[in-house]
Predict the structure.
Amino acid sequence: MSTFTRSSTSTSTSSTSDGKNGTMNGTTDGTLNATTTKANRRPRLSGMTWLVWRQHRTAFWTILAATALSVAWIVYQRGQLVDFLDGYGYPGKSLDEADGKLQQYNDAFSFVSTGLQAIPVLLGVFLGAPLIAGDLENGTAKLVAAQSMSRTRWLATKLALAGLVVVVSTGVMSAVFGWWLNPVKSEVTIMDWTSGAAFNTTGPVPVALTLFSVFCGVAIGAVLRRTLTAMVVTFGFTVALQLVWGYFLLSLGNVVTATTNKGVTGENMSPSLPHGAYEIDQSYVTGSGDLVGLNTCSGSQTDAARQVCLDKADVVGWAVQYLPMSQMNAMQWFGASILFAVTAGVVAFLFFWGRKRLV
């Protein structure tokens, strides 16, 4: 009797214990599995993306950190500018009367615009040129080619990550700088909209210029296969690009001609231009609508002789050629679209070159 009782008790205790253990184990395993599944669902880099990011993480994080600090400083400067304009009474009161009170804001604009114009050169040299050249020089490209990962995917991942960082950083800087400049955008005393200081630092232009410079640096590095040499050549190329771009900048717009027909002597004979318009050239206009140079009849000795000469040439008024400020946005997108198209050609060359040469 006692033996049966002890056995039953022991069996019952064992069953109860097993049940508890089973419940505890089930609960513990379920919690761990749920936690593990939740952790695994967190987005994180892997494979080739992780490798490329880790390889260039110093450059990427430096660019993003510099962008964040610059944005914070510009936001502060914008607040200072708005407070000054409100206290000054702008736009009811012209800034031409501000004298030296506006100088510190002009200096701030000049400082930031100079830095923004240097970004395509800096990123082309220090990000674009070493991106592929470094791997070709130290043998990493051969190691990648020996793995199961294709060279095309390796190149695509490198270009995609570098392009993403460039687009994000320059896009944010362009938007914030344009936001800062917007309250005084039409004031020539602050910044001429046709200059590189304003045109190349707002809208889509800085993104397109920087992306083109970086990918051209990548192409130069892929061809030369030496990091230092590629950086030097890329520096020269990007500086030349800035000069050529500035030379053809005004040709992106459609020149507008304003004319008068009330003669060329006296006051207020020249046509009035819209606010912020950039004057390109002046000339005389004839009765038939032809434009003649201002040197027409310049050799006349007296005013009367000059008037006779002008009448003989059928000069009836002035003609002024200009670019209205309203074209700025269209000019920027037109120029950026050209740069994006050429950049696509550079990328196509890199993939064509990379199929056989990136080893």
